[in-house]
Amino acid sequence: MTGKLNRVVNPQDLEQLAKLLDGRGGMGDKLDEALTRASGLGVSDKLSAIRPIRSWISDTAPELRRKAAYARLEDGDPLAGLLLAGFTPEQLKNKDLPPDILLVANAAASDDTVDDGWLKKKDGESLDDWLVRVQGDAVTQLTGNEELGKAVATYIEGAANLSAFFTASTTAALGTKSLISYFKSSKVLNAPGTFTARLINGHWDKLSRIPKAGSWLTRVPTAALAGSDEAAMLAGYMRKGAFYLPTATEANLLTVAQRGGLANAAKAAGWMRGLGIVGSAGATAWGVANLATMDHGKAWEEDKAKYLSNWTGTAFNASLTAAMIAPNPVTLGLAVGTGVAYAGTLIWDHSDKIAAAAEDTAEWVGDKAEKAGEAISDGAKKLGSALNPFD
Q: Computed over its alpha carbons, how large is the radius of gyration of the chain?
């Protein structure tokens, strides 16, 4: 029994009905407002007959979403598994989700013989937390090794935090240096993350000296990789009494787009800067989605450092996106400030792990390495057995 509907139904209608019940401004909110007013007027007993509707709404709205998700599953909707896990269509809208996770969630939800309870969203669990957890849980389901699953989830979370800390701290340090140079000597600001692009534009000709690889690399147009200085000239402006023509890494892409169109803005950005903008914009959207799916009161009470890192991380990625598109003292200053805040909250969030590791590094590394080796070996054997049709 999967709960699949035996009649034709529009899942969007069911989801809209659920939203009218427990969504913002829906029946649940209006009922709460009525009960609160009645309590203030001392006439709560007059509304006692409708009080049970509150629990009915709490039960019915999720059930409607569950049935809508099964209808979507039958239609082959890739998001059906996540909807069944407990997320709403609004929380998943326009989110770039890992296809392997979508596949696992849909496969587990569509198989009657598989226990998919591990996929369910836990109370107060954000989309970001859910994705980390289920990747580890998926390993546990495949291998039967719970410790290996936890190790995978911890590694994924740790690697992501390390990468985020490096990006935030580097942006803050280099951005601060650039701002000091700007205010002291009026040095033109470059977009964050364009150091390599500047090296390419300035030293691309020297690559021809590299044996074998050099002749091949020099065939790649520098403008395609590091941005077109010619297109960047569209963002020219008056500076120190003269008209200044910025380079590709200095140009305000909004100005280029305004004067020469989006095509020229893309040329001025180049592949490297463009990829950075897309990445930071995606991280911003992901952060917003993560904040939208969490229970803020509960998240604050359970882990203040982690809660603040979610906010500062989203703010940092948003300001970094703005600085990469339009480098100026304001956008770069915001990127520096939010970068410092984000790096600080990441350290705070993981300070216990850092302190524990520092107490006895050699013993910790040796012990964990041995246990990790045993876990991975055991897990790999079980995984191989699970994937081997002749075993």
A: 27
